[in-house]
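Entry: XRE family transcriptional regulator
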Amino acid sequence: MENLHQHLSEALKQLRQANGWSLTLAAERTGVSKAMLGQIERGESSPTVATLWKIATGFNVPFSFFIHGNGLPPGESARFSQPNAQMTVRPLLPWDAQLRFDLLAVELAAGAQSDSSPHEKGCVEQVVVIEGELLLGTGGVWRRLQAGEAWQFAADVAHSYRNPLATPLRFHSLIHYLQHP
């Protein structure tokens, strides 16, 4: 866990310095409080999946920027969890700069819901249910996906993932960054 905190701290500092942003400006651009950003930079706090998405979107970098890369031992990847472990995300492949995608394995606890803020403009997401049942909400419409079913949607709008069952849900998320992250 210490490696993860250190990696997140260094990655966030690197992004802020590269963009020439103060903590105040970073908070404005990401929608994450200045206090929380400061805690992450000092290695005092690890963000939830939702917070990490906001940071990645605000800085216009792929989600996996924080999962693979500097600060983590070779072959190690981070696993991010929502409070109470309602949602866990881990990379299946590292960020591919040429093909511009992230491939993530997502687990959602029984009865849990995760609401996602819009990703980068032009971002497209494909989900494939591996185990369980997914209710996917986009544009005010909910779709029910069973194991083995897939759906593609514009991820640059708010969207939600809900597990209506009393058993865990597992799905893969393939995120295409069509514009330069």
